[in-house]
Amino acid sequence: MSATDKTTLPFTEQHYFSSYDHFGIHEEMLKDTSRTLSYRSAMYKNKHLFKDKIVLDVGCGTGILSMFAVKAGAKH
């Protein structure tokens, strides 16, 4: 199965993964300030875990976690 072939997945999984195809879900998550600020706070309070590290944001929807990681001290 290719990364883009969702047709072999059960319907519920197709729906879940397809929901990320649209920008609206990313906007909704960014506007969830409690969620977004919780991620940021956790990363900023643990800068020692990010200092000079290389970080890979696997989801890569908006890249917000990558930006927080760099602000927390990640090298790349």
From TrEMBL:
Keywords: Methyltransferase, S-adenosyl-L-methionine, Transferase
GO molecular function annotation: histone methyltransferase activity; protein-arginine N-methyltransferase activity
Gene Ontology cellular component list: nucleus
InterPro entries documented for this protein: Arg_MeTrfase, SAM-dependent_MTases_sf
Bilayer-spanning residue ranges: none
GO biological process, one term: methylation
Domain of life: Eukaryota
Gene3D superfamilies linked to this entry: Vaccinia Virus protein VP39
Family annotation (PANTHER family): PROTEIN ARGININE N-METHYLTRANSFERASE, PROTEIN ARGININE N-METHYLTRANSFERASE 3
Protein name (database record): Methyltransferase domain-containing protein
